[in-house]
Amino acid sequence: MTATLIDGKAFAAKVREQVAGHVTRLKEDHGITPGLAVVLVGEDPASQVYVRSKGKQTVEAGMNSYEHKMDADTSEADLLAVIDQLNNDPAVHGILVQLPLPGHLNEDLIINSIAPEKDVDGFHISNVGLLGTGQKSMVPCTPLGCLMMLRDYHGSISGMNAVVIGRSNIVGKPMAQLLLNDSATVTIAHSRTKDLPGVVKQADIVVAAVGRPEMVPGDWIKEGATVIDVGINRIERDGKNKLVGDVDFESASKVAGAITPVPGGVGPMTIACLLANTVTACCRANGLAEPEGLTA
Ligand SMILES: NC(=O)C1=CN([C@@H]2O[C@H](COP(=O)(O)OP(=O)(O)OC[C@H]3O[C@@H](n4cnc5c(N)ncnc54)[C@H](OP(=O)(O)O)[C@@H]3O)[C@@H](O)[C@H]2O)C=CC1
Ligand SMILES: Nc1nc(=O)c2c([nH]1)NC[C@@H]1CN(c3ccc(C(=O)N[C@@H](CCC(=O)O)C(=O)O)cc3)C=[N+]21
Protein backbone atom coordinates (compact mmCIF):
# COMPACT_ATOMS: atom_id res chain seq x y z
CA MET A 1 0.00 0.00 0.00
CA THR A 2 1.20 3.49 -0.76
CA ALA A 3 -0.17 6.21 1.47
CA THR A 4 -2.06 9.28 0.30
CA LEU A 5 0.03 12.36 0.98
CA ILE A 6 -1.73 14.91 3.16
CA ASP A 7 -0.33 18.13 1.75
CA GLY A 8 -0.05 20.51 4.71
CA LYS A 9 1.64 23.15 2.63
CA ALA A 10 -1.24 23.36 0.14
CA PHE A 11 -3.83 23.12 2.93
CA ALA A 12 -2.09 25.94 4.81
CA ALA A 13 -2.16 28.13 1.69
CA LYS A 14 -5.94 27.65 1.56
CA VAL A 15 -6.33 28.51 5.23
CA ARG A 16 -4.22 31.65 4.76
CA GLU A 17 -6.40 32.64 1.80
CA GLN A 18 -9.50 32.32 3.97
CA VAL A 19 -7.79 34.33 6.69
CA ALA A 20 -6.91 37.05 4.19
CA GLY A 21 -10.56 37.17 3.10
CA HIS A 22 -11.69 37.75 6.68
CA VAL A 23 -9.02 40.40 7.15
CA THR A 24 -10.30 42.26 4.08
CA ARG A 25 -13.84 42.11 5.46
CA LEU A 26 -12.69 43.40 8.87
CA LYS A 27 -10.87 46.28 7.22
CA GLU A 28 -13.54 47.26 4.71
CA ASP A 29 -16.66 46.76 6.82
CA HIS A 30 -15.33 47.69 10.24
CA GLY A 31 -12.10 49.64 9.76
CA ILE A 32 -10.21 47.12 11.90
CA THR A 33 -6.83 45.57 11.05
CA PRO A 34 -5.96 42.49 13.12
CA GLY A 35 -2.52 42.69 14.75
CA LEU A 36 -0.19 39.94 15.94
CA ALA A 37 2.74 40.61 18.28
CA VAL A 38 5.56 38.09 18.53
CA VAL A 39 8.04 38.31 21.39
CA LEU A 40 11.42 36.64 20.93
CA VAL A 41 13.85 36.47 23.83
CA GLY A 42 17.41 35.53 22.87
CA GLU A 43 18.99 34.63 19.57
CA ASP A 44 18.20 30.98 18.93
CA PRO A 45 18.72 30.76 15.12
CA ALA A 46 15.87 28.26 14.59
CA SER A 47 13.47 30.55 16.48
CA GLN A 48 14.61 33.54 14.45
CA VAL A 49 13.80 31.77 11.18
CA TYR A 50 10.40 30.74 12.50
CA VAL A 51 9.60 34.24 13.80
CA ARG A 52 10.61 35.78 10.48
CA SER A 53 8.32 33.51 8.45
CA LYS A 54 5.43 34.20 10.87
CA GLY A 55 5.94 37.95 10.44
CA LYS A 56 6.06 37.64 6.66
CA GLN A 57 2.89 35.54 6.45
CA THR A 58 1.08 37.84 8.88
CA VAL A 59 1.74 40.82 6.61
CA GLU A 60 0.86 38.81 3.48
CA ALA A 61 -2.55 38.06 5.04
CA GLY A 62 -3.10 41.82 5.39
CA MET A 63 -2.54 41.97 9.15
CA ASN A 64 -0.19 44.09 11.22
CA SER A 65 2.88 42.31 12.58
CA TYR A 66 4.76 43.57 15.62
CA GLU A 67 8.06 42.00 16.60
CA HIS A 68 9.72 42.46 19.98
CA LYS A 69 13.26 41.13 20.09
CA MET A 70 14.77 41.08 23.55
CA ASP A 71 18.23 40.12 24.80
CA ALA A 72 18.82 36.60 26.08
CA ASP A 73 19.55 38.02 29.56
CA THR A 74 16.32 40.06 29.72
CA SER A 75 14.89 40.10 33.26
CA GLU A 76 11.50 38.64 34.08
CA ALA A 77 10.28 42.11 35.09
CA ASP A 78 11.26 43.61 31.73
CA LEU A 79 9.55 40.81 29.81
CA LEU A 80 6.42 41.11 31.94
CA ALA A 81 6.41 44.87 31.26
CA VAL A 82 6.43 44.26 27.49
CA ILE A 83 3.59 41.74 27.79
CA ASP A 84 1.61 44.18 29.95
CA GLN A 85 2.03 46.86 27.32
CA LEU A 86 0.83 44.47 24.57
CA ASN A 87 -2.10 43.31 26.73
CA ASN A 88 -3.23 46.94 26.92
CA ASP A 89 -2.60 47.84 23.27
CA PRO A 90 -5.90 47.80 21.34
CA ALA A 91 -4.04 47.37 18.01
CA VAL A 92 -2.68 44.02 19.22
CA HIS A 93 -5.19 41.15 19.07
CA GLY A 94 -2.76 38.26 19.40
CA ILE A 95 0.39 37.82 21.47
CA LEU A 96 2.87 34.97 21.03
CA VAL A 97 5.94 34.54 23.22
CA GLN A 98 8.30 32.23 21.39
CA LEU A 99 9.26 29.12 23.39
CA PRO A 100 11.49 27.82 24.81
CA LEU A 101 12.51 30.83 26.91
CA PRO A 102 16.01 31.18 28.38
CA GLY A 103 16.34 29.12 31.57
CA HIS A 104 16.24 32.00 34.06
CA LEU A 105 12.69 32.93 33.02
CA ASN A 106 9.66 31.16 34.49
CA GLU A 107 7.74 29.99 31.44
CA ASP A 108 4.45 29.32 33.25
CA LEU A 109 4.50 32.73 34.89
CA ILE A 110 5.23 34.49 31.59
CA ILE A 111 2.57 32.64 29.62
CA ASN A 112 -0.06 33.17 32.28
CA SER A 113 0.64 36.91 32.21
CA ILE A 114 -0.69 37.13 28.64
CA ALA A 115 -4.33 38.26 28.48
CA PRO A 116 -6.17 34.95 27.78
CA GLU A 117 -8.22 36.50 24.96
CA LYS A 118 -4.97 37.53 23.21
CA ASP A 119 -3.22 34.19 23.87
CA VAL A 120 -3.19 32.97 20.27
CA ASP A 121 -0.96 30.01 21.27
CA GLY A 122 -3.70 28.75 23.59
CA PHE A 123 -1.16 28.03 26.34
CA HIS A 124 -2.66 30.17 29.13
CA ILE A 125 -4.18 28.09 31.96
CA SER A 126 -7.58 29.66 31.26
CA ASN A 127 -7.52 28.48 27.67
CA VAL A 128 -6.25 25.04 28.68
CA GLY A 129 -9.13 24.76 31.16
CA LEU A 130 -11.70 25.99 28.66
CA LEU A 131 -10.50 23.48 26.05
CA GLY A 132 -10.52 20.69 28.64
CA THR A 133 -14.14 21.40 29.52
CA GLY A 134 -15.26 21.80 25.90
CA GLN A 135 -15.80 25.56 26.15
CA LYS A 136 -14.87 28.23 23.63
CA SER A 137 -11.14 28.99 23.94
CA MET A 138 -8.03 29.82 21.98
CA VAL A 139 -6.79 26.47 20.66
CA PRO A 140 -3.05 25.68 20.33
CA CYS A 141 -1.99 26.13 16.71
CA THR A 142 -0.13 22.87 16.06
CA PRO A 143 -2.88 20.56 17.35
CA LEU A 144 -5.51 22.72 15.64
CA GLY A 145 -3.69 22.32 12.32
CA CYS A 146 -3.50 18.55 12.83
CA LEU A 147 -7.22 18.41 13.64
CA MET A 148 -8.12 20.40 10.52
CA MET A 149 -6.19 17.96 8.33
CA LEU A 150 -7.76 14.93 10.05
CA ARG A 151 -11.29 16.34 9.70
CA ASP A 152 -10.66 17.23 6.08
CA TYR A 153 -9.33 13.77 5.24
CA HIS A 154 -11.78 11.67 7.27
CA GLY A 155 -14.87 13.84 7.46
CA SER A 156 -15.49 12.57 10.97
CA ILE A 157 -13.04 10.88 13.35
CA SER A 158 -15.76 9.86 15.80
CA GLY A 159 -15.08 6.40 17.29
CA MET A 160 -11.64 6.04 15.73
CA ASN A 161 -8.70 4.86 17.83
CA ALA A 162 -6.18 7.67 18.09
CA VAL A 163 -2.74 7.34 19.65
CA VAL A 164 -0.82 10.53 20.46
CA ILE A 165 2.87 9.95 21.13
CA GLY A 166 4.09 12.76 23.40
CA ARG A 167 2.45 14.54 26.33
CA SER A 168 3.82 18.07 26.18
CA ASN A 169 1.61 21.03 27.07
CA ILE A 170 2.12 22.57 23.66
CA VAL A 171 1.39 19.56 21.42
CA GLY A 172 0.58 16.16 22.94
CA LYS A 173 -1.93 17.08 25.65
CA PRO A 174 -3.98 19.63 23.67
CA MET A 175 -3.93 17.26 20.66
CA ALA A 176 -5.40 14.48 22.78
CA GLN A 177 -8.03 16.89 24.11
CA LEU A 178 -9.11 17.93 20.60
CA LEU A 179 -9.30 14.32 19.41
CA LEU A 180 -11.41 13.47 22.47
CA ASN A 181 -13.70 16.45 21.83
CA ASP A 182 -14.24 14.98 18.35
CA SER A 183 -15.16 11.64 19.97
CA ALA A 184 -12.08 9.64 19.05
CA THR A 185 -10.93 7.01 21.55
CA VAL A 186 -7.65 8.50 22.68
CA THR A 187 -4.47 7.00 24.09
CA ILE A 188 -1.57 9.23 25.13
CA ALA A 189 1.81 7.50 24.96
CA HIS A 190 5.09 8.86 26.36
CA SER A 191 8.58 7.81 27.38
CA ARG A 192 7.31 5.44 30.10
CA THR A 193 4.73 3.71 27.90
CA LYS A 194 5.13 -0.07 27.87
CA ASP A 195 5.16 -1.74 24.47
CA LEU A 196 4.90 1.43 22.41
CA PRO A 197 4.95 -0.53 19.12
CA GLY A 198 1.97 -2.58 20.33
CA VAL A 199 0.08 0.54 21.41
CA VAL A 200 0.71 2.31 18.09
CA LYS A 201 -0.40 -0.81 16.19
CA GLN A 202 -3.94 -0.34 17.57
CA ALA A 203 -4.24 3.15 16.15
CA ASP A 204 -6.41 4.27 13.25
CA ILE A 205 -4.81 7.68 13.77
CA VAL A 206 -1.22 8.18 14.95
CA VAL A 207 0.01 11.63 15.95
CA ALA A 208 3.76 11.61 16.61
CA ALA A 209 5.06 14.55 18.68
CA VAL A 210 8.22 13.28 20.30
CA GLY A 211 11.22 15.15 18.96
CA ARG A 212 13.18 12.03 18.00
CA PRO A 213 14.18 11.78 14.35
CA GLU A 214 12.37 8.97 12.49
CA MET A 215 11.59 7.11 15.70
CA VAL A 216 8.36 5.51 14.45
CA PRO A 217 9.04 2.86 11.79
CA GLY A 218 6.49 1.53 9.31
CA ASP A 219 6.19 -1.83 11.05
CA TRP A 220 4.60 -0.16 14.12
CA ILE A 221 1.80 1.24 11.95
CA LYS A 222 -1.49 -0.53 11.34
CA GLU A 223 -2.21 -1.05 7.66
CA GLY A 224 -4.24 1.89 6.35
CA ALA A 225 -3.82 4.12 9.43
CA THR A 226 -3.55 7.90 9.15
CA VAL A 227 -0.19 9.24 10.34
CA ILE A 228 0.31 12.87 11.41
CA ASP A 229 3.98 13.67 11.92
CA VAL A 230 4.51 16.72 14.13
CA GLY A 231 8.24 16.23 14.63
CA ILE A 232 10.68 18.83 13.32
CA ASN A 233 14.19 17.43 13.63
CA ARG A 234 17.30 18.73 11.96
CA ILE A 235 19.76 15.96 11.18
CA GLU A 236 22.88 15.55 9.11
CA ARG A 237 22.75 12.87 6.45
CA ASP A 238 25.25 12.27 3.65
CA GLY A 239 27.00 15.46 4.74
CA LYS A 240 23.84 17.52 4.25
CA ASN A 241 21.49 19.17 6.74
CA LYS A 242 18.02 17.68 6.50
CA LEU A 243 14.67 18.22 8.18
CA VAL A 244 12.93 14.99 9.22
CA GLY A 245 9.92 14.12 11.33
CA ASP A 246 9.40 11.69 14.20
CA VAL A 247 8.15 9.10 11.72
CA ASP A 248 10.30 7.14 9.30
CA PHE A 249 8.48 8.41 6.21
CA GLU A 250 10.10 5.91 3.85
CA SER A 251 8.78 2.80 5.63
CA ALA A 252 5.62 4.32 7.15
CA SER A 253 4.28 5.58 3.82
CA LYS A 254 4.25 1.98 2.54
CA VAL A 255 1.85 0.89 5.29
CA ALA A 256 -0.19 3.96 6.18
CA GLY A 257 -3.40 4.98 4.41
CA ALA A 258 -2.43 8.65 4.61
CA ILE A 259 0.56 10.52 5.97
CA THR A 260 1.84 14.07 6.41
CA PRO A 261 5.37 14.81 5.17
CA VAL A 262 8.12 16.78 6.93
CA PRO A 263 8.68 19.45 5.77
CA GLY A 264 5.40 20.52 4.20
CA GLY A 265 2.98 18.93 6.66
CA VAL A 266 2.12 20.10 10.15
CA GLY A 267 4.64 23.00 10.21
CA PRO A 268 2.96 25.24 7.62
CA MET A 269 -0.45 24.47 9.16
CA THR A 270 0.83 25.68 12.54
CA ILE A 271 1.59 29.13 11.16
CA ALA A 272 -1.68 29.26 9.19
CA CYS A 273 -3.58 28.44 12.40
CA LEU A 274 -1.70 31.16 14.25
CA LEU A 275 -3.01 33.65 11.68
CA ALA A 276 -6.49 32.13 11.96
CA ASN A 277 -6.39 32.44 15.77
CA THR A 278 -5.39 36.09 15.45
CA VAL A 279 -8.43 36.82 13.27
CA THR A 280 -10.64 34.88 15.70
CA ALA A 281 -9.24 36.86 18.64
CA CYS A 282 -9.79 40.12 16.74
CA CYS A 283 -13.43 39.24 15.97
CA ARG A 284 -14.09 38.26 19.59
CA ALA A 285 -12.45 41.47 20.87
CA ASN A 286 -14.79 43.50 18.68
CA GLY A 287 -17.95 41.51 19.28
CA LEU A 288 -18.09 40.37 15.64
CA ALA A 289 -19.08 37.00 14.18
CA GLU A 290 -16.14 34.61 14.14
CA PRO A 291 -14.84 33.05 10.94
CA GLU A 292 -16.31 29.61 10.46
CA GLY A 293 -14.12 26.55 9.92
CA LEU A 294 -11.04 28.22 11.36
CA THR A 295 -11.63 27.25 14.99
CA ALA A 296 -12.09 23.91 16.71
N1 LIG B 1 5.35 21.26 13.38
C1 LIG B 1 5.16 22.12 14.34
O1 LIG B 1 4.51 23.13 14.13
C2 LIG B 1 5.74 21.89 15.68
C3 LIG B 1 6.61 20.87 15.83
N2 LIG B 1 7.12 20.56 17.05
C4 LIG B 1 8.00 19.40 17.10
O2 LIG B 1 7.29 18.32 17.69
C5 LIG B 1 8.14 17.52 18.46
C6 LIG B 1 7.63 17.44 19.88
O3 LIG B 1 7.62 18.72 20.45
P1 LIG B 1 7.23 18.98 21.98
O4 LIG B 1 5.92 18.37 22.27
O5 LIG B 1 7.43 20.41 22.23
O6 LIG B 1 8.39 18.13 22.69
P2 LIG B 1 8.69 17.80 24.22
O7 LIG B 1 10.13 17.48 24.27
O8 LIG B 1 8.12 18.84 25.11
O9 LIG B 1 7.86 16.46 24.46
C7 LIG B 1 8.23 15.25 23.89
C8 LIG B 1 7.33 14.13 24.37
O10 LIG B 1 7.78 12.93 23.76
C9 LIG B 1 7.90 11.91 24.74
N3 LIG B 1 8.98 11.01 24.44
C10 LIG B 1 10.31 11.26 24.42
N4 LIG B 1 11.00 10.15 24.09
C11 LIG B 1 10.10 9.18 23.90
C12 LIG B 1 10.18 7.81 23.57
N5 LIG B 1 11.36 7.23 23.35
N6 LIG B 1 9.06 7.10 23.46
C13 LIG B 1 7.85 7.69 23.66
N7 LIG B 1 7.71 8.98 23.99
C14 LIG B 1 8.80 9.71 24.12
C15 LIG B 1 8.18 12.64 26.04
O11 LIG B 1 7.75 11.80 27.10
P3 LIG B 1 7.91 12.20 28.66
O12 LIG B 1 6.84 13.21 28.91
O13 LIG B 1 7.68 10.91 29.35
O14 LIG B 1 9.28 12.75 28.80
C16 LIG B 1 7.37 13.92 25.88
O15 LIG B 1 6.07 13.76 26.38
C17 LIG B 1 9.52 18.16 18.31
O16 LIG B 1 10.17 17.54 17.23
C18 LIG B 1 9.22 19.59 17.96
O17 LIG B 1 10.24 20.20 17.24
C19 LIG B 1 6.73 21.25 18.16
C20 LIG B 1 5.86 22.30 18.07
C21 LIG B 1 5.32 22.72 16.80
N1 LIG C 1 5.09 30.06 21.52
C1 LIG C 1 5.40 29.17 20.58
N2 LIG C 1 4.45 28.72 19.72
C2 LIG C 1 4.76 27.81 18.74
O1 LIG C 1 3.87 27.39 17.97
C3 LIG C 1 6.12 27.36 18.63
C4 LIG C 1 7.05 27.86 19.54
N3 LIG C 1 6.68 28.75 20.50
N4 LIG C 1 8.35 27.44 19.49
C5 LIG C 1 8.81 26.56 18.44
C6 LIG C 1 7.73 25.64 17.92
C7 LIG C 1 8.05 25.07 16.57
N5 LIG C 1 7.05 25.59 15.66
C8 LIG C 1 7.08 25.43 14.28
C9 LIG C 1 6.18 26.06 13.44
C10 LIG C 1 6.27 25.96 12.07
C11 LIG C 1 7.25 25.21 11.48
C12 LIG C 1 7.33 25.12 9.99
O2 LIG C 1 6.72 25.89 9.27
N6 LIG C 1 8.12 24.19 9.43
C13 LIG C 1 8.32 24.00 8.01
C14 LIG C 1 9.79 23.93 7.65
C15 LIG C 1 10.59 25.10 8.08
C16 LIG C 1 12.07 24.89 7.83
O3 LIG C 1 12.45 24.51 6.72
O4 LIG C 1 12.83 25.11 8.79
C17 LIG C 1 7.72 22.68 7.56
O5 LIG C 1 7.55 21.78 8.42
O6 LIG C 1 7.43 22.52 6.39
C18 LIG C 1 8.13 24.55 12.29
C19 LIG C 1 8.05 24.65 13.68
C20 LIG C 1 6.20 26.37 16.37
N7 LIG C 1 6.52 26.45 17.66
Automatic annotation (TrEMBL):
- Entry EC no(s): 1.5.1.5, 3.5.4.9
Pathway(s) where this gene product acts: One-carbon metabolism; tetrahydrofolate interconversion
Supply the alphabetized keyword list.
Amino-acid biosynthesis, Histidine biosynthesis, Hydrolase, Methionine biosynthesis, Multifunctional enzyme, NADP, One-carbon metabolism, Oxidoreductase, Purine biosynthesis
Q: Which residues bind NADP(+)?
A: 166-168, 232
GO biological process terms, alphabetically, are: L-histidine biosynthetic process; methionine biosynthetic process; purine nucleotide biosynthetic process; tetrahydrofolate interconversion
Write down the InterPro entries for this protein, in alphabetical order: Aminoacid_DH-like_N_sf, NAD(P)-bd_dom_sf, THF_DH/CycHdrlase, THF_DH/CycHdrlase_cat_dom, THF_DH/CycHdrlase_CS, THF_DH/CycHdrlase_NAD-bd_dom
The source's superkingdom equals: Bacteria
* One GO molecular-function entry: methylenetetrahydrofolate dehydrogenase (NADP+) activity
Q: Where does the record place the Tetrahydrofolate dehydrogenase/cyclohydrolase NAD(P)-binding domain?
A: 140-284
Concerning SUPFAM superfamilies, the annotation shows:
Aminoacid dehydrogenase-like, N-terminal domain, NAD(P)-binding Rossmann-fold domains
Q: Where are the transmembrane segments?
A: none
Describe the location of the Tetrahydrofolate dehydrogenase/cyclohydrolase catalytic domain by residue ranges.
6-121
Per the record, what are the reactions this protein catalyses?
A: (6R)-5,10-methenyltetrahydrofolate + H2O = (6R)-10-formyltetrahydrofolate + H(+); (6R)-5,10-methylene-5,6,7,8-tetrahydrofolate + NADP(+) = (6R)-5,10-methenyltetrahydrofolate + NADPH
Write out the GO cellular component annotations.
Answer: cytosol
The UniProt entry, under HAMAP family, shows: THF_DHG_CYH (MF_01576)
| Xref: PANTHER family | C-1-TETRAHYDROFOLATE SYNTHASE, CYTOPLASMIC, C-1-TETRAHYDROFOLATE SYNTHASE, CYTOPLASMIC-RELATED
Q: Which family does it belong to?
A: Belongs to the tetrahydrofolate dehydrogenase/cyclohydrolase family.
Assembly mode: Homodimer.
The protein's role, per its UniProt record: Catalyzes the oxidation of 5,10-methylenetetrahydrofolate to 5,10-methenyltetrahydrofolate and then the hydrolysis of 5,10-methenyltetrahydrofolate to 10-formyltetrahydrofolate.
Write down what this protein is called: Bifunctional protein FolD
Organism of origin: Thalassovita mediterranea
Q: Which gene encodes it?
A: folD_1
